[in-house]
Write a structure and sequence with these properties.
2,3-Dihydroxybiphenyl 1,2-Dioxygenase, domain 1, globular, 178 residues, alpha+beta, 4 helices, eleven-stranded mixed beta sheet
Length: 178
């Protein structure tokens, strides 16, 4: 657990081909099922303090135990930390995420103590922020507020993985926040 951001809940994996990555995780690692969204809707997107059009991000979520894996493929050239990661020649684990209920309090403390915003935005699920401080590839830290909507979605992903028998490995029906 991070004494600053709370419990690690998710590992974000930036990929160039999300369909290939999902197949790998299913066929080689036995992890699934994957819940896939071809375009994740976001609002208020900002990269390094500047507003930009929302990047076209395809996202897939699955759990392995209590850790959620998030596959991310950016399908445009909008500035983002994902794009930076790929352009630096990397592919793979790009960030880890916590989901605190006191998101705004932790965000304010982190910024006051010298952390810097890499990108941030909002969604129907709630706000998120990525901090820039990275010691090596894969150490970007994301926080996403543990809103009721977000946790309902993430709980469904975790529950689907618990007794998954390998059937229906890639699901186009994103879990409901209701």
């Amino acid at each position: 657990m991070s004494r600053i951001f709370g419990e690690m809940r998710q590992i974000g994996i930036v990929v160039r081909d999300i369909e290939k990555a999902m197949r790998h995780w299913v066929e080689v690692c036995g992890v699934g099922p994957w819940f896939y969204a071809e375009r994740l809707p976001l609002t208020g997107y900002r990269y390094k303090g500047r507003p930009y059009d929302t990047p076209h991000l395809s996202i897939a979520l699955a759990n392995s135990g209590d850790i959620q894996l998030e596959l991310i493929q950016q399908r445009c050239r909008t500035p983002s930390l994902y794009w930076d990661f790929l352009n630096a020649g990397h592919e793979g684990a790009q960030h880890w995420s916590s989901w605190p209920v006191n998101f705004h309090e932790i965000r304010d403390k982190a910024l006051a103590s010298g952390w810097h915003v890499g990108q941030e935005g909002d969604s129907a699920r709630g706000p998120f922020i990525y901090f820039l401080e990275e010691g090596h590839p894969g150490t970007v830290i994301e926080m996403a507020e543990a809103t009721r909507a977000r946790m309902r979605i993430f709980d469904q992903v975790r529950e689907a993985a618990k007794n998954w028998d390998g059937s229906d490995p890639i699901r186009l029906n994103w879990p409901s926040a209701d």
